[in-house]
Here is the input.
Amino acid sequence: MIKEYINHPLRDLNSFHVEERAERVITFDQKEDLEQIFAEGHTLDNWYVLGGGNNILFTRRFGGTLIKPVGKNITIKANLDDSVIVEAEAGVEWDDMVEWSVERELWGMENLSLIPGTVGAAPVQNIGAYGAEAKDVIERVHYYDAKERRHHTMGNAECRFAYRESIFKHELRGKAIITSVEFRLSKSQQPSLGYGDLAKEVEARGRVTLKNIREAVCSIRRSKLPDTAVLGNAGSFFKNPIVNKDVSERLKQEYENMPVYPVSEQNCKLAAGWLIDQAGLKGYRQGNVGVHERQALVLVNFGGATGEEVISLSELVRERVKEKFGITIDPEVNIL
Ligand code: EPU
Here is the structure.
């Protein structure tokens, strides 16, 4: 079913809670609805897919159509010897999907507990946390190509997943609307506890069970990341920069405690949160916006902020990090 809203307020549709409006918002719950929305002769030139609105910053009125999938079905497609293939519609809350898997003793999503957003948004930026990424469990992605007016399916390899990257942010940007995602979840125990304090947090809860891992991840996230219901934010505002090893080794000589994560032979990833923190900006406030006091990677709205205020703070953060370390950090958040 399609529902249409005109001149719709966006405050509750974006986790930053900026007060902008959209000319039109359309919600749909069946993939066939898209054929009607994009029917021939029906011009829809400026549209954007809105998931949970957790990774988006509106800087002005959106003069087009926001298309929001709201279908929430989760279906088991195949029950195999050691794994299960599950298809979830794009409108399922990501954390409901993780909870569903943990309740059924299926492994693979537990480290991704409590990431805000929807199933349909997960492949776009290949969401990740605590050493796991959505790409590790995605089997295939179903989407509607609004240019070709056709439904398609893409296998994991074709999605070209990388750190916070996929084909949906590039070639298929402005074309694809993800309608559902199939996941492969494992029936056998496959814990991945290598990241930070995760192993310690799990141990404190007893045995290595799916439930204990999920609880540990939720507790670490709650202790660091602000609740969007209380303080508007979009999670990590910046991506962790990937730099050449020469660059990180040079910095490491000066800053012994700087976190460095290897990504390939030549490159490694630095912690943008650490860089911002060391640049003296953790807890920095500018009007209605600020750098979160417990996690410098997160910019927050103390209430009533406009998108422009957030942008101006993010530019200051980028400049300071560039000045101090010579490193450029780029937003992870989509700016509209
Ligand atoms: N750090 C600081 N000060 C800070 C923040 C971080 O010194 O204010 C240091 C930490 O002590 C740690 C390092 O920087 O040594 C990395 O910090 P953390 O483990 O908290 O993770 P992160 O790199 O800041 C990434 C993801 C998060 C994800 C966490 C946990 C990105 C951009 N962010 O953050 O994802 O939850 O790892 O795996 O990759 C998101 O994408 O919205 C998000 C929250």
